[in-house]
Design goal:
binds NADP nicotinamide-adenine-dinucleotide phosphate; single chain; 6-stranded parallel β-sheet; 6-stranded mixed β-sheet; alpha/beta
Length: 288
């Protein structure tokens, strides 16, 4: 078993801002260990001013590839040589592959979100109504996934209204029959939209450290028992958003299954090796 680092070891990793609590290194290094692969997965904590230099460094150090996480999924695109078609449409990249010095961006969040929603959330997307909090890089992947699967209505609520409107504008051209509405977080329509919704998704960073006492929805009376409430955050495992939803009798799901499934797709792009998602999820749930 190749447990030791040697001259043939290939490096993969994750680039992000607050990644001390990221479970990606655990997930990928567990896969590497389980299947005796000669790779190592490293965390790279980078400031925004260093993002361009870090991406160039992937070429310079012949790193095989990286995940891109909060908050650089959109910003990173300008530093890439190529962007795969669906990632270009989404406008967000969470995986970079280095193929002989050519850096190509992909989005595996779409796959991860869809699989977790269907398999772990037991949620049939078609003809459902949803409320999404947030309009950043992760929101773009989530909304794209829902549109691909025929969701009936998407209402985006975001602090910066312009970003929600931009998603509506960008995605309406790819999905001309879609019904996307953009609102600011303070919008009074929120109550009515949640009442009619089947799915509520937090794609904001509210609830992750250091904002663990925060949540995108302040009025906890708006949760109801017909909702599936999904928080993309996985650390802490139960955010304030999910705890409030549970108290109202709603079914909940956190971001861990999505993280594992998107990670497995990324791993496949770097190594050509695809582990079984459920098996890895169980290992991570036991060891996280
Ligand atoms: P991002 O592009 O930086 O977007 C952040 C979003 O949060 C924006 O909509 C932003 O609103 C909102 N936000 C931030 N601070 C806020 C505040 N104080 N009040 C209201 N809204 C606020 O980040 P991202 O890449 O989309 O990631 C967002 C979250 O999803 C992170 O917690 C990340 O860890 C998680 N995530 C999880 C997975 C997974 O696999 N489980 C995958 C992807 C992302 P503005 O537009 O107004 O700035």
């Amino acid at each position: 078993m190749k447990k030791d680092i040697n001259g043939k070891t290939k490096i993969i990793g994750v680039i992000g801002k607050n990644i001390e609590n990221s479970l990606s290194p655990l997930i990928h290094n567990q896969i590497i260990l389980k299947y005796s692969l000669n790779f190592r997965y490293m965390p790279f904590q980078i400031t925004e001013t260093d993002l361009g230099k870090a991406i160039q460094g992937i070429k310079g150090l012949n790193i095989k590839g990286v995940n891109i996480t909060f908050p650089y999924k959109e910003k990173v695109i300008e530093f890439l040589d190529e962007v795969e078609e669906s990632a270009r449409r989404i406008g967000a990249v969470n995986t970079i592959v280095n193929n002989k010095g050519i850096l190509t961006g992909y989005n595996t969040d779409v796959f991860g979100f869809k699989k977790s929603l269907q398999e772990d959330g037991k949620f049939a997307i078609k003809k459902k109504k949803t409320v999404i909090f947030g309009a950043g890089g992760a929101a773009r992947g989530v909304i794209y996934a829902l549109l691909e699967e025929g969701i009936e209505e998407i209402c985006i609520f975001n602090r910066t209204l312009e970003k929600a409107k931009k998603i509506k504008q960008d995605f309406s051209s790819f999905f001309p029959r879609s019904c996307i509405n953009a609102f600011s977080l303070e919008e009074e329509n929120l109550k009515d939209k949640i009442k009619k919704a089947h799915l509520l998704v937090n794609t904001t960073s509210l609830g992750m450290p250091p904002k663990i006492d925060d949540a995108p929805l302040q009025n906890q009376n708006l949760f109801h028992s017909n909702l599936l409430v999904y928080d993309l955050i996985y650390y802490p495992a139960k955010t304030l958003f999910l705890r409030r939803a549970e108290r109202a009798g709603a079914k909940t799901i956190n971001g861990l299954p999505m993280l594992v499934y998107q990670g497995i797709e990324s791993f496949y792009l770097w190594t050509g090796f695809k582990p079984e998602g459920k098996e890895i999820l169980e290992i991570i749930e036991r060891s996280a």
